Amino acid sequence: MSIWRKIAAWLADEKGTPSGFHKVKGPDGRVMIVDQLTFDYLKSRAPAPSQKSLDSIMDRTLKVRVYNGGVLGSDLGTNTMLFETDRDEDLKALGKSLRVKDGPRV
Fold this sequence. Notes:
The chain is α+β, with helices and mostly antiparallel strands. It folds into two domains: 3-43, no CATH class; 51-97, no CATH class. The chain is 36% helix and 18% strand. The chain contains four helices and four strands; from the N terminus they run αββααββα. The protein has helices at residues 3-12, 36-43, 51-60, 88-97, and strands spanning 21-25, 31-35, 64-67, 81-85. It starts with a helix and ends in a 9-residue tail after the last helix.
C-alpha cells in the first residue's frame, strides 16, 4: 500500500490513526494528523506565545546551545552540539532575530 493510501485511510477512519497521533480539524476545515505534543498545545487554554513572552525569556537567558537534531523529550546525548554561547552580544542578537507571528494556533 502506498504512503498516500495509508494517509487517506488514517483520515477516513479514526481507528486507523497511528498510536500517539490525533486528528485535528483546522480553521479552514482541513484535517491534520498531529503528534501528542502538538495536540496538547492546540488544546491548551494557556495564553498563546507572544513576542513579549519570548523577549522576557530571552532577557533571562544565560546560555544557548544548538544541536544537529532531536526534539523535545528526546535524548540529546546522541546528537552533536553545533554551537554554544553565553556571550551577551550573541544572546542579544539572537533575541532580536527571533519573532513570534501572532495569529491562531492552527
